[in-house]
Amino acid sequence: MTAGMASKARLFAMAMVAGLLTGCAASPSFLQAAGPVAAEQRHLFWLVIAALMVVVLPVFIGLPLVLWRYRRGNDKARYDPKWDWNPRLEFVIWGVPVLIVVLLGIQLWHSTQTLDPYKRLDGNGTITVQAVGLDWKWLFIYPDQHIATVNRLVIPAGRPVHIDLTSDTVMQSLFIPRLGGQIYAMAGMRTQLNLKADRPGSYFGENTQYNGEGFHKQNFRTLAVTDAAFDGWVKRVKASGSPLNEARYRTLAKKSVPDAPMEFSAVPEGLFARIIAKYMQPERRGKEGGQ
Amino acid sequence: MTVQSAWFWAIGRIDLHSFAFVRAWEDPSLDKMIAAGAASLVVLGAIAVFAIITKLRKWRYLWQDWFTSVDHKKIGIMYVILSGIMLTRAVIEAVLMRMQQAVAVNQPGIVAPEHFGELFSTHGSIMIFFMAMPFLTGIINYVMPLQIVARDVAFPTLNSISLGLTVSGAVLLMISLVVGKFSTGGWSGYPPYTEMAFNSGVGPDYWIWAVTLSSIGSTMTGLNFAVTIYKSRAPGMHLFRMPLFCWTALCTSILMIFAMPPLTVATLMLALDRYLDFHLFTTDLGGNMMNYANLFWLFGHPEVYILILPAFGVYSEVISTFSAKRLYAYRTLVYATMVIAVLSFTVWLHHFFTMGQNANINGFFGIATMCVGIPTGVKVYDWILTMYRGRVRFTVPMLYAIAFLVTFVIGGMTGIILATPPLDYVVHNTLFLVAHFHNMLIPGLLYGMLAGYQFWFPKAFGFRLDETWGRISFACWVVGFYLAFMPLYVLGAMGMPRRMAGVFQGEYLPWLIIACIGAFILLAALGALFVQLVISIRRREKTRVPAGDPWDGRSLEWAISSPPPEYNFAVIPCVEDRDPFALRKEQGRAYQPPHAYEDIEMPKNSVLGPVLCIVGAAAGFALVWHIWWLAILSFLGILAAVIVSSFSRDTHRVIPASEVARTHEHWLRTVAEARAIPRELETRSANEGLAESAV
Amino acid sequence: MSADELKHAGLNLQEADPLTHEKAGEAIFGFWVFLMSDAVVFALLFATYGVMLRGTAGGPVPHEVYEIKSAFIETLILLSSSFTFGLASLAMKYEHKRHQLELWLGVTLLLGFAFIGWEIHDFVSMAAKGEVPSRSGYLSGFYALVPMHMLHVTIGCVWGMVMLVQIRKFGLDPMVKINVMRLSLFWHFLDIIWIGIFSVVYLQGLA
């Protein structure tokens, strides 16, 4: 009965690992890393699991053995109802987890520093994108190219991407699993995320922080393209003749799920900073407050 | 005064569209019909209960023997009943959500997105505040005073008030199904999403007041338990002779005392924002939503250990009893419990590694979180070593303990993954996280409480639960859990966020279907649990254990009759060992008549608990709907009730020694006539609650 | 256990009334635990105030809002009330003369009401200048903390009035004595909180 159960648990664990290996092939998983950040995260993931096996496996193996050997009815096994302490054993069962946690802790400290989402990535020609979380879409502003997109992030493959984030509504979280981790976007604040795509491709991106009815539809494609294609795309967008002005932005900021990605040929200077500053200024109420 | 303003004065924001039935009448879509169906279940259920009680003429009995009772045992049972009702609702909601995700792949599915938001918010809020908390509070209430040989908790009336406040919160949640809508902001209610600017409806208000009522109740419960354990132990019951369950109850209580106030502060400040136009967590005018996240998780993380520690206590008792052996490394387990309790206050930030703080802060909290794994891992080994050189019996509570050990270890492993900030960045807010915390709380809370329920049921009611249905239910809980949640790990690693009302990735579908099947098996597990209860009640004559010790127990709650008398122990014994009852049985002096009996003073019933329950629910409802006259009236009512009751001096009654002697000697005769049975027969009708001495 | 033993922190009745002393252990310990929990509430409100301090949103800043004179007088009133409550407690423990206890408790309550009145006056004049919680996060933090303390003092005053009535009705029975002891702990606790408010909110704001 119990041995069966333990083996069932193992079966599920194996199924889970198998699922991770196969099922993710076509999915937006960090295990299908397409950039250096996600690749390191994937490496770390398996490393942590492997280290933990030292603690976990003794339980999976030892528990069924103990249960079987010391089941009631097996009179061959030693019965010692008063046995309740063994200092050496106690040293081991404290010592091993402590050791594992010390090692993992060192690893954790190190990896938290190296994989800090705020840390700029190595490489030339960093491209800056300003992402604004709206209900229920992402606006991407390219401050250097003076263009903007909605629900489509086009980046040059092989070049570091620096993303500044904010929100013009409730809290959101920008996540492109195959490129790396997520960071919250919050109104009145600027957060940062640094990613890079190794090779051209189309990568799924999304918001993971619930923000209402349209939440599940708030996703976008990240298109990593060659440098040449990127420049060509910028030129094409600029020529498309549909600028993002303040009025257009106000419409855009209203609750909606766009049918298709949008592209804007021009962006007002400092829009991103104004979206942040809007929440810092007392324009809405309380005019009598003195300085 | 216009008609409209008079109307508003009388019933606040309520209008016809507040009612789920009206909404379904106007728009008979599947989504609205499901909502109306749930509402009618609440209404019909309430009517049926009222009708049955009235028909059986049980109102007086219920009022006198239950609602106004301050007996910790009855209060404990009422907590568990509340928890069972709320568990049923929340499991059904879970099934609906899993169905929605399984069918809503590139399709609308069965419920609208907003309804889906309500489902995950109520599911979470109920499971934490109105299933888990009442369940563990109920079991601690019942068992802890018996184990430390107290006559009742330190403040019996306060205990009844805590129950009343918890019930009033649950009532608000039930009413929200019929009138209005619940919050869609999740169980954590993060602003600014729950602020007036983004959610001006009644949903967040329902959440605020339901949670606040339960939070205040839990604070008082923690206070009550801690004082009881510190002050009401029997002579000789040193702290280090307490059963481990009492230790975990103590640590949980201390956590409640310190960790519930942050929740109360967070919800009340959110209420200030919503009701009085404060700017504490708003996006504009200097509000700071990050402060809410800190306050909430300053409660939220210790809360996890509030939930898990009592289960650790149950497992310690169960494993030791059904291995017929002393608990291995008792002191280590005690220290590990305390270490966990202390560390629980140092890790809250791991709930928002992705908020953009610097790497050193994330690193510190990540390592602190990993450290919690040490004492927890040690405990797992100590439990296995308790079975080592024992004689293990695979009864239902023991099966839960074994399933816990295996499952919890998997959850611990994924916990370490989440504690590593760079890994958290890729699995945070995904179904991986959802799988992880269910992986901790289902074995670490639900299995534990169910084990405790199966273990102590015969003590509370004098007859055993049906073993076969117990095993069926157990099997379903375990199989259902693995099917429902292992796929969520995969989906999370595949990048699927939590709280999705619809899915647009075809490759998620197989996993979602498996998870949905798992959810149905969990529903079947709950069904089997109720079948077990009904069958057990029907067959109770064959499973009575009047002698009181059906499992060859080791601690003192087994040394008295089942069910115990109101005053628990006829004479307070002196405790001389950690397993006092086992020692006495060994020495053949378990059932000695005492030298003399004394009068026993017991607290009288109090109406304060049920009154505050009703007034508390009224206050909450009035605040939700802006019915100001009722809110003011309710607050005055609370004040008046407390003041009036403070004038009562007739609070105790004395049970004469002769009555105590009569009851106790009657029980001793029952014991003398009972047949002592070997452990092989403990699940048969031969088990009258008297254990054969020695093995 | 003997009557001369300390049963709990704070003023013990001891041999002055061994019977009540015996009962007080659990009751007073329980109240200490409650105060601990309440202290957490205030700690978080202080922390929140600290966090919100920068969120003035272009509105008034602390040194424009606070008046040191007012805060200082409030401090004096509240500190004196703690002293008079101390006298009330001692009267209860040693004198067994009811009117002395009633007198000092009455004086304490009067000081309590004076404190509340003064504070309300402060809030009203702040509101008249537009310094209301809806103006900014900083003012919200202020109004979450300081009126919360005032609410506690108000509850203390109502409780004190109830105790005065109960002293009349029941005399100094064990329940009354225990509740006076609890109220005194509550009162001194609020004094300590106020010292925190005075230094963290007012002095720091005006520095």
From TrEMBL, chain B:
Answer whether the UniProt record assigns the keyword Manganese to this protein: no
Transmembrane domains' residue ranges: 33-54, 75-92, 126-144, 156-179, 206-230, 242-272, 292-315, 327-349, 361-378, 399-419, 431-453, 474-496, 508-535, 607-625, 631-648
Per UniProt, subcellular location reads as: Cell membrane
Which keywords appear in this protein's UniProt record, sorted alphabetically? Cell membrane, Copper, Electron transport, Heme, Iron, Membrane, Metal-binding, Respiratory chain, Transmembrane, Transmembrane helix, Transport
Tell me the domain of life. Answer: Bacteria
Q: Does the keyword Cell membrane apply?
A: yes
| Cytochrome oxidase subunit I profile domain span | 57-576
Pfam families on file? COX1 (PF00115)
Topology relative to the lipid bilayer, per the entry, is: Multi-pass membrane protein
InterPro entries assigned: Cyt_c_oxase-like_su1_dom, Cyt_C_Oxase_1, Cyt_c_Oxase_su1_BS
Family per similarity comment: Belongs to the heme-copper respiratory oxidase family.
- What protein is this chain from? Cbb3-type cytochrome c oxidase subunit I
UniProtKB/TrEMBL annotation, chain C:
Membrane-spanning regions, if any? Answer: 29-51, 71-91, 103-121, 141-165, 185-205
Residue stretches making up the Heme-copper oxidase subunit III family profile domain: 29-206
Q: Any idea which UniProt keywords this protein has?
A: Membrane, Transmembrane, Transmembrane helix
Pfam families with a match to the protein in the record: COX3
Q: Which InterPro entries match?
A: Cyt_c/ubiquinol_Oxase_su3 (IPR024791), Cyt_c_oxidase-like_su3 (IPR000298)
Name the major location.
membrane
List the PROSITE patterns hit by this protein, alphabetically: COX3
* Keyword check for Transmembrane helix: yes
- The answer to whether UniProt assigns keyword Transmembrane to this entry is yes
What is its subcellular localisation?
Cell membrane
The membrane-topology field of this record reads: Multi-pass membrane protein
What family does this chain come from, according to its entry?
Belongs to the cytochrome c oxidase subunit 3 family.
Entry-linked PANTHER family: CYTOCHROME BO(3) UBIQUINOL OXIDASE SUBUNIT 3, CYTOCHROME C OXIDASE SUBUNIT III
* Name of this chain's protein: Cytochrome c oxidase subunit 3
Species:
Stakelama flava
